[in-house]
Amino acid sequence: MKIIDLLSHGQANAVSLRELEGITGLDGRTVRAMISAERRAGAAAILSDNVTGYYLPANGEEKARFVRSMRHRAQEILSAADAVERS
After folding, report:
1. CB 36 within 8 A of CB 44
2. Taking a C-beta distance cutoff of 8 angstroms, is the pair 48, 55 a contact?
3. At 24, is the pLDDT very low, low, confident or very high (cuts 50, 70, 90)?
4. 31 class by beta-carbon count within 10 Å (0-12 exposed, 13-18 middle, 19+ buried)
């Protein structure tokens, strides 16, 4: 089973983690690990946000918005690590 097969295109059709847990019968950690593996494999452009859940891109803007969000999060994490390292 692949998570990508359970998702639809567009943020409006997002599926929450709780829903994916119910559909798959798996716990959230396992579902997130599957999503991560599918993303890293490069075959799946699984997008997400903190409000609606997981979905496939309906257009380039959704994909770009997700990429911007992930890059921003990565920068915030690096900044926090740098601050702790300097302290």
Report:
1. no
2. yes
3. very high
4. buried
